[in-house]
Design brief:
This protein has 333 residues and is mainly beta. Helix content is 0%, strand content 44%.
Length: 333
């Protein structure tokens, strides 16, 4: 399940389901007349309401950024064959995304690995910053900063976690003061901001084993909060700040992935959704989780699961996402 550029199947949308009970159970269908999938929009926002990385057609290895409009239709946002890992700005107006050296822009080759910006309708592409390697990026909750993982030069042996201004200036290492677990050779990714924008969660891979850490982006104070042999992918931090959600493979490489929730205070792990990838919180209180059943082929499904195990599903056309489907933060209520 290890991947570069977000190539673990996963995604995100929203619904109007509510759920407040605790615990977990086997998923059961919602009763007749229950709410169905809705594609939420931010107030006054334009463009697509969700975005993800995917192939143009089955059997094609080239990837691009796609979106879903308010009706659930697939919209092609880039067409260079080397773009992915989209993330919305907090107000939903802009998308930051990665572009590899195989891509093109304005008829010429794109420089190295790079971060780009575009409007959420796919217009006005512009280069943000050129890097030696970039995996994914994430806007801070107030939109003033962007965190990303990657390498700044060819001399750097492994990807690290960085923070910069939203205009691409003042790039600095966020995890330089983190606990010294084989710092030089350990690779970092999966950045997730706290709701207040003062801390950043990240995943550090040491000898193939993931460790989840939290670092203050201003002071550099850091702590490791979880280690696992099962993998940690598509890390999502609840708005309450007390738990993480991520995709895990409890049986190791080749086993069925599950959506796992980790309580930070107790380090208690709970399976939220069986046989699922790309799990993410859909509500601020964590009552709803979106995931995709593993093993989709032509077309794909999204499933929302409540705390009580109730589910609602919607099918979409096109090759499945190769990474999480993301929503604008302003759409999460």
């Amino acid at each position: 399940m290890r991947r570069r550029r977000g190539h673990v199947m996963g995604l995100a949308l929203v619904t109007v389901l509510t759920g407040c009970a605790t615990g977990s159970s086997a998923p059961v269908p919602l009763p007749p007349g229950a709410p169905v999938f809705e594609l939420p929009r931010c107030d006054d926002a334009t463009g697509v309401v969700a975005a993800y990385t995917s192939r143009s057609d089955l059997g094609v290895e080239l990837i691009d950024v796609f979106g879903l409009d308010a009706q659930g239709n697939r919209v092609n946002l880039t067409d260079d064959g080397a773009s992915g890992s989209p993330r919305f700005s907090p107000d939903g107006s802009t998308i930051v995304f990665t572009r590899g050296p195989g891509g093109s822009y304005a008829g010429g080759p794109a420089p190295a690995d790079s971060l780009w910006l575009m409007n959420s309708d796919g217009t006005n592409e512009r280069l943000l910053v050129e890097l030696t390697e970039v995996r994914e990026a994430e806007y801070s909750p107030d939109g003033s900063r962007i965190a990303f993982s990657g390498r700044l030069s060819v001399d750097q042996t492994a990807a690290k976690t960085y923070v910069m201004n939203a205009d691409g200036t003042d790039i600095r290492r966020a995890t330089v003061s983190a606990p010294d677990y084989d710092v030089d050779n350990a690779s970092e990714d999966e950045g997730a901001w706290s709701a207040g924008g003062t801390e950043l969660a990240f995943v550090r891979w040491v000898a193939g084993q993931p460790q989840v850490g939290i670092v203050s982006v201003d002071t550099g104070a850091a702590r490791m909060v979880h280690s696992s042999s099962d993998g940690v992918f598509d890390l999502s931090w609840s708005a309450r700040g007390d738990r993480f959600l991520f995709t895990s493979a409890p049986g190791g490489v080749g086993s069925e992935p599950t959506a796992v929730e980790l309580e930070l205070d107790s380090e208690n792990r709970t399976t939220r959704v069986e046989a699922a990838v790309g799990a993410t919180y859909l509500t601020a209180n964590g009552s709803e989780v979106l995931s995709r059943p593993s093993g989709d082929g032509a077309g794909f499904k999204l499933v929302i699961t409540t705390m009580t195990g109730e589910t609602v599903t919607r099918s979409f056309e096109g090759p499945p996402p190769a990474g999480p489907v993301v929503l604008p933060p302003c759409a999460i209520r």
